[in-house]
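Hi everyone,

Forwarding the result from last night's run.
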Amino acid sequence: MHPVLAVAGRAAGAVALWLLLLVAASAAHANPYAGYSSATYGGTSRWLCHPQLATWNDSCRGTLDAIAVEAGGAWSIRESRPATDAKVDCFYVYPTASTDLGANSDFFPGDQEKQTTLMQAGRYREVCRMFAPVYRQRTLTYLALDALADSLVSDETAARAAELAYADVRDAFRHYIAQHNQGRGFLLIGHSQGSRLLSRLIAEEIEKQPYLAQRLIAAHLPGFSVLVPKGADAGGTFATTPACRHAAQTGCVVAYSAFRQGDPELATPRFGVSPDPALQALCVNPAALAGGNAVLEPHMPFAMPPAFALLLKPRGSGGPYASALHNALILKSYTPFFTVPGQVSGQCVVNAAGTSYLEVRIMADPADPRADDYPGELQIVTGWGLHLVDINLAAGNLVKLARSQSQAWLARQ
């Protein structure tokens, strides 16, 4: 063969091989749910939050402004303004909130689920389009029975309830990716049961599909023990998804469980613990990703969702001021949320027993007209720490982080 023809033949072969590899790579990164359509989550009737829901019927749309009370007592209104043209999405799964009587809830959410969703996820609308499915979760009723006595709920009943809840969340996520995502980046947001279900979704679906892993901006999963090898940021619960350690890092996870500094409930903690001595619960402080102590930006509700309000130990005065009367006037006249700039700090610690948690400190000052304490612990059961307000305690930090991570992800596309 003529040398020129031989070179041309080799070049053509190389091009053909390159095209085959390109086609194979494209196939490997194709949408794994293309053509998927859920019989349950088609339309908007089974969604708490959805871009196509009417404003009045979307649980992520509501008044989220907060009154900010400074150390000297001066106050101002901090507005929460949803993005007008969000370039990324958030997929939120709410925590155990249903008071239905069975092991699993039905598909008809009450005020408890709706108010919890607004309180935890609504502020993320400053960054993203919100998707939050209604799912048949394990209920507060059965959680209470299980907490009171292990023998009241069998392991088989608990396992079936958990599988049904996960199947719903997976179905909703697949439908969202197939029908609504359109290649956009997405954040996963959860708390407690919601974080547990999303953790499983990451391990079983997202990490195994490059198309999904490339679009995962971050997972914000407080209130659940994501496990990692001691001293490591990856491995354990997830094969490859690491802890978030800087504000521009994407494809990573934020997880923590909050306890008050010196909390006696740390003697028997339910969260921040690992059944495997080689692993420990991950703690990522959203105010100090690389570690250390930092000021948290809480957004606390004046009134918790009904069932949670009954479960909380009474602490403080009911608002940002030490004066309950002053708080009552604010509650009626201004905003449903309050924040206390510079008064609450947090740092991730691992205590002598191996519990890994976000240690929260309220920097009380008798000369400060602000309250010196705020509710967070549960009545009746112990070991939960500040579980009910995990997200509220760092809501401002989490939303800022979601914004910086989304901007970083978009810049790389």
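The longest helix spans residues 155-181.

Cheers,
N.
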